[in-house]
């Protein structure tokens, strides 16, 4: 399956490929990034970015692998990763992302999320998107709200054992109807 490149005012979202692996590793390996995630290991293994990208490419062969690297226009610097994990029924997905701390607070995650959300409903024809963010990461909760998702409650979710095994997160959802009817 081919994943298209998405563009925004300041970003180019390219389908993640092994050539992006080292750049992804530069921010994924940082504790300040990993601590807010359920699955990014810390310490991050050397070469882990390339291995992750190779796994994403393999998933694409089976209809998955909807992961993009966020490149800043002008510099082509990789500043984040964002993706959709399709549910088994193929009608909904979970939105997830990580961004480089040196680009936090500039609206890049929200900008990328809006582009991926539009793609999810327009190109993939999904019925709903879900996401969650750790309550200890209020900036990520704001990203989801600004991107148009509606907070629906809290949940305890599993995380890697070195983070205590579970974390409390705010849950968010956006349906196709809510997306279609949102103010533009």
Structural commentary:
The structure is a single chain. The chain has one domain (6-181): Gcn5-related N-acetyltransferase (GNAT) (Aminopeptidase). The chain has six helices and eight strands, in the order E-E-H-H-H-E-E-E-H-E-H-E-E-H. The chain has helices at 21-28, 31-34, 48-60, 108-122, 138-146, 176-181; strands at residues 6-7, 11-15, 66-72, 78-86, 92-99, 128-134, 150-158, 166-175. Strands 1-2-3-4-5-6-8-7 form an eight-stranded mixed beta sheet, sandwiched between helices. Strand 5 (92-99), helix 4 (108-122) and strand 6 form a beta-alpha-beta unit. The two termini are 31 Å apart.
Summarize the structure.
By secondary structure, the chain is α+β, with helices and mostly antiparallel strands. It is 30% helix and 31% strand.
Helix content: 25-40%
* Order of SSEs: EEHHHEEEHEHEEH
Number of strands: 8
Going by CATH, the homologous superfamily would be Gcn5-related N-acetyltransferase (GNAT)
Number of domains: 1
**Helical element count?**
6
Q: Per the principal axes of the C-alpha atoms, what is the gross shape?
A: globular
Q: What structural category characterises the helix and strand content?
A: alpha+beta
* First-residue to last-residue Cα separation: 31 Å
Largest sheet entry: 8 strands, mixed
Roughly how many Å is the radius of gyration? 15 Å
CATH class: Alpha Beta
Order of the strands making up the biggest sheet: 1-2-3-4-5-6-8-7
Catalogue the unreliable spans.
Answer: none
Mean pLDDT: 95
CATH fold label: Aminopeptidase
Sheet-strand content, in percent, reads 25-35%
Query: What's the architecture in CATH terms?
Result: 3-Layer(aba) Sandwich
């Amino acid at each position: 399956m081919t994943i298209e490149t998405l563009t925004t005012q300041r970003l180019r979202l390219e389908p993640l490929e092994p050539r992006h692996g080292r750049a992804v590793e530069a921010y994924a390996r940082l504790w300040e990034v990993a601590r807010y995630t359920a699955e990014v290991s810390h310490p991050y293994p050397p070469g882990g970015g390339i291995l992750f990208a190779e796994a994403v490419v393999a998933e694409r062969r089976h209809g998955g692998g909807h992961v993009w690297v966020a490149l800043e226009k002008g510099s082509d610097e990789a500043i984040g990763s964002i993706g959709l994990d399709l549910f088994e029924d193929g009608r909904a997905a979970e939105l997830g992302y990580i961004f480089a701390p040196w680009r936090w607070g500039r609206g890049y995650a929200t900008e990328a999320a809006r582009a991926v959300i539009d793609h999810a409903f327009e190109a993939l024809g999904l019925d709903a998107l879900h996401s969650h963010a750790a309550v200890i990461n209020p900036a990520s909760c704001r990203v989801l709200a600004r991107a148009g998702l509606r907070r629906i409650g809290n949940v305890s979710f599993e995380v890697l054992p070195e983070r205590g095994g579970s974390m409390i997160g705010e849950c968010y959802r956006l349906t196709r109807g809510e997306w279609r009817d949102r103010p533009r």
